[in-house]
Amino acid sequence: MQSLRVHVANETQLGDLAARLAACLQPPCVLALYGQLGAGKTTFVRAFVDALAPQAHVQVNSPTYTLANTYCTYPVVHHLDLYRLDDLEHVWDLGLGELMLDEQAFVCVEWPKTFVREIAVPRLIEMQLDMKALDGSCKRHVKLTFSAECPRTWYDAVQKVVKQPYD
User: Fold this and answer.
1) Which residues make beta-bridge pairs with 141?
2) Sign (positive/negative) of CA torsion 130, 87, 31, 65?
3) Is the Cβ–Cβ distance between 77 and 52 less than 8 Å?
4) The pLDDT of residue 138
5) How far is CA 58 from CA 25, 50, 55, 167, in A?
6) Which of 20, 95, 105, 120 could be disulfide-bonded to 161 (CB atoms 3.0-4.6 Å)?
7) CB distance 158 to 21 below 8 Å
8) What is the pLDDT of residues 15-53, one digit of tens each?
9) What is the SS3 string spanning 136-157?
10) What is the DSSP letter of 163?
11) Under a CB-based contact definition with an 8 Å cutoff, are residues 77 and 59 in contact?
């Protein structure tokens, strides 16, 4: 496993990070998004989807109550929220396990708990979003951890683009 740390000053820069990742990755890929309420998980997914289909104006909402949204981008993005699920069996019963294993899609999972590891999803990137208040502003610290199944070229490409200045 390899990790990168990135600091973003605001939601705009978080969206820029999402767009940069979308340009570097390809399916199958699961992005497991960890972070407290308001850390920017859905904001990240919104920008990721927009980067894949900028002209489509896809409406991205948190799937808190629906548990899953699928966006008709190219490639497809499945957006899952596992916050209300306690048991791996429920994940499978609801068809969410199959979505996580979709080899033609990106899968963004909010509140993944341990489910992404238990299902043994291929090409997993775990993203920890932490908010820190500094000098009256809120900054996000992002840690990206790439599973051993992720191609080394992904890590290298992401490492290169996150070092570039943000707009």
Assistant:
1) 7, 130
2) negative
3) yes
4) 67
5) 20, 7, 8, 23
6) 20
7) yes
8) 999 999 999 999 999 999 999 988 889 999 999 999 999
9) CEEEEEEEEEECCCCCHHHHHH
10) T
11) no
Three-class DSSP category at 48: helix
Handedness of CA 110, 156, 118, 27 (dihedral sign): positive
Q: 3-state DSSP call for residue 14?
A: helix
Q: Give the pLDDT of residue 133.
A: 65
Token couple for 19: 């767009």
Integer-rounded Cα radius of gyration of the chain: 15
Structure tokens at 161: 């683009």
91 to each of 115, 118, 131, 153, 166, how far by Cα in Å? 8, 11, 28, 31, 37
Residue with structure tokens 């999402």? Answer: 18
For the chain, which ranges sit under pLDDT 50? none
- Cα dihedral 71, 11, 109, 23 sign: positive
